[in-house]
Amino acid sequence: VYGNFDYSLNASRMIEYSRGVPTEIDALYTARDAGIINEGTELPESSNLLRQNGNPIWRVSSSLTWSSGPVRVGASATYVSSFFDTSLSNNGNYYRVDNHTVVNLYTQYSFDDSIAANTKVKLGIRNLFDRQPPLADQTFGYYGSVHSPLPRYIYINLQTEF
């Protein structure tokens, strides 16, 4: 009566992320602690890299699709939680890269008549709210490994089988 609904939710939460420190970095930590080098010298964090430099705690993606006969309508969203960019700091506080959500929509029609059998036309919008990636101290001003710089765009897709 109301068509078919499909819903998907995928979420991942990073609990721990760390790496060992090379001996050279250990030596710098020791020198800083002994006052040989400046106390404010920033050194790479070794014990906990969670929420730092492109390592958010949460990544969530979700989609909802409704279909009835030849018509299908869908929406999807992706969310990445905030994290800190350790290359920028103010009095020991790192720069916060904001969380980011992108929403996409589409509608699709599948032709069933004999002339256009097995043909589908899809019209969609990517990045519906035209969200730019959050600012970060990286080459292009954002974390390319985490966020996409693509602005809102509308597309049409024609698919057929013969």
β-strand percent reads 35-45%
Shape: elongated
Task: Please outline the major beta sheet.
Answer: 6 strands, antiparallel
Kindly state the mean pLDDT as a whole number? 91
Total count of helical runs of at least 4 residues: 1
* Order of strands, widest sheet: 1-2-3-6-7-8
Number of strands: 8
What report would you give on this structure?
The longest helix has 11 residues, at 23-33. A six-stranded antiparallel beta sheet has the order 1-2-3-6-7-8, with no helix packed on it. The chain has one helix and eight strands; from the N terminus they run βαβββββββ. With 162 residues, the protein is mainly beta. Helix content is 7%, strand content 44%. The protein has one helix at residues 23-33; strands spanning 4-13, 58-68, 71-80, 83-90, 93-97, 100-111, 119-126, 153-160. β6 (100-111) and β7 (119-126) form a beta hairpin.
Task: Record keyword descriptors for this entry.
162 residues, mainly beta, 6-stranded antiparallel β-sheet, two-stranded antiparallel ribbon, 1 helix, 8 strands, 44% strand, elongated
Set down the secondary structure blueprint.
Layout: E1 4-13, H1 23-33, E2 58-68, E3 71-80, E4 83-90, E5 93-97, E6 100-111, E7 119-126, E8 153-160
Antiparallel strand pairs: 1-2, 2-3, 3-6, 4-5, 6-7, 7-8
Question: What can be said about this structure in brief?
Answer:
It is built from 1 helix and 8 strands; from the N terminus they run βαβββββββ.
